[in-house]
Amino acid sequence: MRRIEDENLYAILGVSSSATQAEIQLAYKQRARELHPDVNKAPDAEDRFKRLGEAYAILRDEQKRARYDARGGRRRPGNARTKSRAWAHADVGFDDIRTGTDDLNHPFEDLLRRARDRRARRPTEHAVTISLGQAYTGTSVDVVVPGKVGSSPTLRVKVPPGAKTGDRLRLPEHAVVVRLRVDLGPYKLQGRDVRMDARVAPWEAALGADITVAAPHARLRLKVPPGTESHQMLRIKGQGLPAKPGRNGPPGDLYVRVVVATPRDLSPQERELFERLARISRFRPRPES
User: Fold this and answer.
1) 74 by DSSP, 3-state: which?
2) Which of 196, 198, 197 is nearest to 209 (CA)?
3) Model pLDDT, residue 85
4) How many CB atoms within 10 Å of residue 249?
5) Cβ-based neighbours of 217, under 8 Å, separated by 6 or more
6) What is the pLDDT of residue 42?
7) For 279, which DSSP code?
8) CB atoms < 10 A from the CB of 217, how many?
9) Given this model, what pLDDT does residue 83 score?
């Protein structure tokens, strides 16, 4: 059976046999961050992390270290100053690791237990789709959370006003993350400005009119000025997507693109009126050739 005392403990920590206690402690913390199972996904990472803890438990204790050295620990083969490539974990900064410095003072068995518990509590992600109108006003959605066998509790999750696609609602007490998608329908969203089309009759565009437009959250009145061109943009200030609660800033604006709709199935009387208009109108949409 393998005994940790039979290995080069100094090489495991990556220090020389003359290292001070401060150097040993610093080396342990650095290696523990590299080998922590939450970060290092190698199949043998947990075993190497455990060996590191066992080596540190001996070398941090002056009496145990002295007994180890007396049995030949200083003369064991291996370059203590050489760090194994297999132990390096590239591209991981200390800030990326959830294990704090204080945690490294706990026994390695406790660290392993905590790592397993964290993996077991990793939040499950649920995708939820809401309408743009619901994003205006805020809403509540039901999320089914897998529980014990035969149990799937339903959580009612409150979505605040101003939600956008990609927003995440975190429920750490239930280990749940809700990822939102906003179905825009016929609308377009640019920042917090909302854009939509509104069809008007030729005479409404020519004479001007007060029309009602179906905004995502309500029906709004819009004044179409006389002589409005097709595809002209009209703005209703402050009727775009609101800011999220707790964030400064006004809501966006609602931009309505006027689309002049041409009637197709004309009655005899309508056709007569259009023909008369064509004869008497001075309007020339194109320059005379």
Assistant:
1) helix
2) 198
3) 32
4) 10
5) 133, 136, 137
6) 81
7) H
8) 19
9) 36
**Cα–Cα distance between 97 and 111 in angstroms, integer?**
13
Q: State how far the alpha carbon of 125 is from the alpha carbons of 63, 116, 144, 147, in Å.
A: 50, 19, 11, 14
Task: Give me 273's structure tokens.
Answer: 């009126």
Instruction: State CA 32 to chain mean position distance.
Output: 29
pLDDT tens per residue, range 8-40: 999 998 999 889 998 999 999 888 888 887 777
pLDDT of the residue at 285: 87
Q: How far apart are CA 100 and CA 105, in angstroms?
A: 10
Distance from C-alpha of 9 to C-alpha of 13, rounded to nearest angstrom: 6
The per-residue DSSP string of 17-68 comes to TT--HHHHHHHHHHHHHHH-TTT---TTHHHHHHHHHHHHHHHTSHHHHHHH
Instruction: List Cα–Cα distances, 27 to 9, 35, 58, 83, 125, in angstroms.
Output: 12, 12, 14, 11, 37
User: For 115-164, what is the HEC assignment?
Assistant: HHHHHHCCCEEEEEEEEHHHHHHCEEEEEECCCCCCCCCEEEEEECCCCC
Mean pLDDT of the chain, nearest integer: 82
198/221 Cα distance (integer angstroms): 12
Closest CA to 77 of 2, 183, 21, 6: 6
pLDDT tens digits for 188-225?
999 999 999 999 999 999 999 999 999 999 999 999 99
Q: How many CB atoms lie within 10 A of CB 179?
A: 14
Q: How crowded is residue 198: how many other Cβ atoms within 10 Å of its Cβ?
A: 16
